[in-house]
Amino acid sequence: MKVAVMGYGTVGSGVVEVIEAHKKSITKHTDGEMLEVSHILDLRDFENDPHKDLFTKDFNDILNDGEVKVVAEAMGGVNPAYDFTMKLLKAGKSVVTSNKELVAQKGLELLNTAKENGVNYLFEASVGGGIPIIRPMDQCLAANNILGIAGILNGTTNFILTKMIEEDTAFDEALKIAQDKGYAEKDPTADIEGFDACRKVCILASLAFGKHVYPNQVETEGITKITLEDVSYIASAGGVIKLLGQIKYISDDEIAAFVGPAVVFHPSQLASVNGVFNAILVRGDAVGDVCFYGQGAGKSATASAVVADMVDAAKHTERRKIFGWEDGNENYVVDYKDTIKMPFYVRAKCTESKAKALFDEVKFLTRKGQPSDEIAFITDVMTENELMKKLEGIELIAKIKVTDY
Question: Which residues have a Cβ under 8 Å from the Cβ of 388 and sit 6 or more positions away?
């Protein structure tokens, strides 16, 4: 079967390499049919590439080739990826992608178009890279009502926080190390401000609860305000700081979804996920907590997930997989600050007696070099708005959510 690849960057080139290197394995899952890359779309020139004869700069070469049944979109961004994908689906070609931004923004429209045209739009690699999560949630956990999801969804931020926790490295220095190692982009904004994790939360929430969630509905905070002082205080309580995407079921008509730093205590499975590794913990009413762990990014890992979707699409050229979700609405994702109760880590200029008077229960934390006029503590359970009301008039230095995963 002829297939095509759009975009020949890290993921796209990895897709071509995986198809070539794993022909025997792939044919076992396609009833002996080979996947043959016939077109690679990219505006750049690759004169020394062994696949140079497959390159084209004209999208129509793929669109108009009736023998191409499956296309891997590895272009990134919303445009022109959205326009190209829509045209391919309408032309009766299945499309697979690792493009989380596109799926988060336009997934509903693309899934509906795939359904209307009897083809598939698949995106296993868009959330966990090489970690299987989309298919397990859609199939293996189908007998569960999902109660919540918590995920370390970005390897760059997890690497930075690991450096801060394990090596006492300040944020700015840890970020530079991540950039030097190629884990962070020259402009790391999407990672360190939480936007990358936000897009993945949208996809997970849409899949888990059946209604589309858009990035502007997910309140997002990054890790730029985390300091070594916070790391030290939380370590004294047996916890670590992770950037988590969290989704909580409230009712069939309401969910909460948010991204931000969170305190995770040992022995939570999420507490021991270090470096560039990711983990997604899904809580079902029947199965309990299930954790998916592995490399959330990287050329080979992500490409393997893309090719697995291509194989799946190749197996379903005569029938469409039942897969997707409905439209949501602006009130579907509620303000978690008013609805979700949790403990909080607080660091402030305050006395212990004042903190005890404000909260029913407090657990005070300590660190080396702690100033005499500074305290840190874990509160009892409340909403974030209730917390902020209690802290009125107090000089707040930092606050971090405490997760129950």
Answer: none
**How far, in Å, CA of 155 to CA of 373, rounded?**
36
Strand partners, 3: 37, 70
Question: What radius of gyration, in Å, describes the C-alpha atoms of the chain?
Answer: 23
Predicted local confidence at residue 106, as pLDDT = 97
Q: What is the mean pLDDT of the chain?
A: 95
Which pairs from 160-167 meet CB under 8 Å and 24+ separation?
A: 160/184, 160/192, 160/223, 161/223, 161/226, 161/240, 161/241, 161/242, 161/243, 162/274, 162/275, 164/226, 164/228, 164/231, 164/241, 165/231, 165/235, 165/240, 165/241, 166/274
Q: Is the pTM of this model over 0.70?
A: yes
Q: In this predicted structure, what is the pLDDT of residue 80?
A: 97
Among 1-15, 26-40, 218-232, 346-360, the minimum mean pLDDT is found in: 26-40
- Mapped onto helix, strand or coil, the DSSP state of residue 25 is helix
Within 195-351, residue ranges assigned H as helices are 195-209, 228-235, 299-315, 336-339
pLDDT band at 3 (very low <50, low <70, confident <90, very high): very high
Question: Is there a catalytic annotation at residue 69?
Answer: no
Of these residues, 200, 211, 321, 399, which one is catalytic? 200
